[in-house]
Amino acid sequence: MNKKESTLYIGKGSQADKQYGGRPVNDIIEELRTENEVLKKRVEECLESEHKFYVLTESAPVGIFSTDAEGNTTYVNPHWCNISGMTYNEALGDGWIRAVHPDDLEGLFAGWENAVAEKRSSYAEYRFLRKDGTVVWVIGNSVPQFNGDGEIVNYIGTITDITERKIAGEKIRTLSRVAEQNPASILITDSYGSISWVNSRFTELMQYTLDDVRGRPPRIFNPGHIPQEEYEEMWRILRSGRTWCGETPNRKKDGRFFREKVIISPLLDESGNLVNYIIISEDITERKKMVQDLVAAKEKAEESDRLKTSFLNNLSHEIRTPLNAITGFSALLSEPGLAAERIEEFAGIIMESSDQLLTILNDIISISAIETGQVEVVEVKTDVEELFVSVYRQFASKAGESNNCLKYCIDGMEGDHEILTDSNKLMQILSNLVNNAVKFTGNGEVKYGCSLSDGSLCFYVSDTGIGIPAAMHQEVFKPFRQLETANNRKYGGPGLGLSIAGAYVKMLGGRIWLESEPGAGSAFYFTLPFKRP
To answer: Does this model's pTM top 0.70?
Structure first.
């Protein structure tokens, strides 16, 4: 055996039976050779593993970092730099902190300190504020690494860019709030039309909860109230991928019906396949009523304008007639040598025309006061029989001129005919009704009276005149309404008498109506509360 440079050589052909430490030298050499091969292999594996780890971290689609036990960064991969907007060197040590949004630092450090104290992994959702001002949302995870004594020696962690997820989530939350807080009722069904979701407005309007309607078709709210052909047309449009709009009746849980405007749209996935229907509806009952009221008001205004125009035309005729008579016969009275009989005749015509003109002016003043609310009720002791006598004296002569029989009757008041009411208005009511009866009756009978029944006085004025068509029974109580509208009409008057009478009856606490048909005369009735003075 020769020794050279601390290497033991065994001569060729010699017996390897030398001992070292009680073991054959050959065995020791073989064992060392084997251990060397194993160590070499492990080193190669470690180098290969380190290379793989390096390649993996450098190309990983998530940010990867490592820190020492105090949290100072010792490594970041390129994707971490891309996410944060920092360079590798800028991130080392505590430089990474400058990438964190200032508003998130306190919460991030608090979570980190708790995790360190409990020797556990930390998890946080926070923002990076990049140098260019853009904000990136990330989820950070760090896992502690321990030595044999259980002490933390470093951390390895990842950050994942969740900005798109946050934006998408915020959009979803925004859309959810829009749907939930929308003033319109919203339903979502599956592709077969079964309800899967409703918003709070639907529950408020329809009184159904989601549990009440889940899995049921929307048609349960209006069974049989949509014509079949309309229903089929709606589905034809929806199956073609188009949106359907319309108005439908709907029924609430308590059974009440209402009108709603409905928009139904198909919802498709990315491949164009139908996945849902969205139904947006709005209660338009009040709007429909408002429109109807506006139309009615417009028609009423137009009718009022027409009636006022007609009234002014008639009024000019009504005023001109007595004025012409007054002017003409006044001029005749100034002629010399006029006979006494002619003077008396002309004076009578002038007086009659003056009374006619005064009546017209009084009616105009009365209806104006009524419409502006300037009329007051003044109740005084009133003798009904005396009032009837006054009416008789007022119209007896005029009734006689038309060959009419005028009479009155009082029933059920047992000799005491005094009541408490507005005497002037009651006189006006009766005068207007009797005047109309005499005017529209010839060679017939006009009768008026009253009877006491159930605490009310029921007055009536009946005639055997021309009668009133059923369609005009309500119209005649409106201002300026007349059976005739032409200037050459047979019966005069501005058309205010019945309107004034009806308004006064209402003021006195009663109601007025009529029974009549053409050619069979008319009977006007009105009631007043029976009050003793």
So the answer is: no
